[in-house]
Amino acid sequence: MLKFAYYPGCSLDSSAREFDLSTRAVSRHLGIEYVEVPDWSCCGASPGHSTSQLLALSLAARNLALAESTGLNVTAPCAACYHRLALACHELTGNQELREEVNQITGRPFNATIKVRSILEVITSVGLEQIATRVVRPLTELKIAAYYGCLLVRPRSVQVDDPENPQIIEKIMAAIGAQTVHWSHKTECCGASLAVSNEEVAIPMVFRILKAASLAGANCLVCACPLCHFNLDMRQGKVNQTLGTDFHLPVFYFTQLLGVAMGLDSRDLSLNTHFMDTAQVLKLVG
């Protein structure tokens, strides 16, 4: 059995409960065990590093030290959390002097003995063939725009896949029978937390992503980031209202569709808590 320390972070404990629930449900079904990081705290995403590099490193390092105490490599489903933890781990592993300074600040020594894995890497470590054997409801009627956003593919030191044309989500979707569209905006920024402070800037960014997905023939989007999901799902209505469009593209976490294909209970996947109704698209797969 695969076993990892699990860092849920703030969003999976609140606004992205769908991601947390579906990740845990799918992982149990695939034989992946998680040990939640004890006494975890905010990793600093997304404003910490814009305030102070030392602050950002220290916030992440405290959680890395707690994860290290489990003796397991750690995964963080949230792309922003993964990004902060993985970057801090990379920087602190390669700089002992900096690590000692940060350890003094946190009071919880991080010895750089673990690795940070994205949830995409953890799920695929089971093997795509093994995932395919668990499928009881192939999602053949779905035409999916796989959306990565910024944080999973940048910078090089922590990127999960190719920064220009990542394919890891497409490979997972193919394993469960779904079609994925070729489109132009899979790694374009959605505005992230800027949507909170400057919605006028973020709305056109979200619009361009939705337009590109729609023109490519997608009937839904799939992501692995709470900020991306929040902007594309919740702000889709505001895009329609502001720009006179009529988008209705449900936005799923990739773990939710994995769970659907595996026949898991819809309540464990939280499919009815989105802003954009998922029912019509899910009817296509029964």
Structure overview:
This protein is α/β, with parallel strands linked by helices. The chain has helices at 9-12, 17-30, 48-51, 53-68, 79-93, 96-106, 119-124, 128-133, 168-175, 194-197, 199-215, 226-234, 236-243, 254-261, 266-269, 279-283; strands spanning 2-6, 32-36, 74-76, 116-118, 143-146, 179-180, 220-223, 251-253. The mean pLDDT is 95. It contains 16 helices and eight strands.
Features:
286 residues, alpha/beta, four-stranded parallel sheet, 16 helices
Short description:
The chain is of the alpha/beta class and 286 residues long. It has helices spanning 9-12, 17-30, 48-51, 53-68, 79-93, 96-106, 119-124, 128-133, 168-175, 194-197, 199-215, 226-234, 236-243, 254-261, 266-269, 279-283; strands spanning 2-6, 32-36, 74-76, 116-118, 143-146, 179-180, 220-223, 251-253.
The CA-CA distance between the termini, in Å, is: 31 Å
Mean pLDDT: 95
Q: Which percent band covers the strand fraction?
A: 5-15%
Number of helices: 16
- Helix content bin: 40-55%
What form results from the Cα inertia axes?
Answer: globular
Q: What's the alpha carbon Rg, rounded to whole Å?
A: 19 Å
Please trace the helix and strand order, writing H or E for each element.
Answer: EHHEHHEHHEHHEHEHHEHHEHHH
Largest sheet: 4 strands, parallel
Strand order across the largest sheet: 2-1-3-4
Poorly predicted tracts of residues: none
Structural class: alpha/beta
Q: How many strands in all?
A: 8
